[in-house]
Amino acid sequence: FQAEDGIRDLVRSRGLGDVYKRQLTHEVKRINNLVNDLYELTLADLGAMKYQMREMNIGSCLKDVIESHRERLESSGIKINESIDTEVAFLGDSYRLEQLFTNLIENTLRYTDSPGKLEILLSENKEKILITFNDSAPSVDHDVLGKIFDRFFREELSRSREKGGAGLGLAICHEIVEAHSGEIKAIPSDYGGLSVQITLPKGDS
Question: Are 52 and 93 in contact (CB under 8 A)?
Answer without folding.
Answer: yes
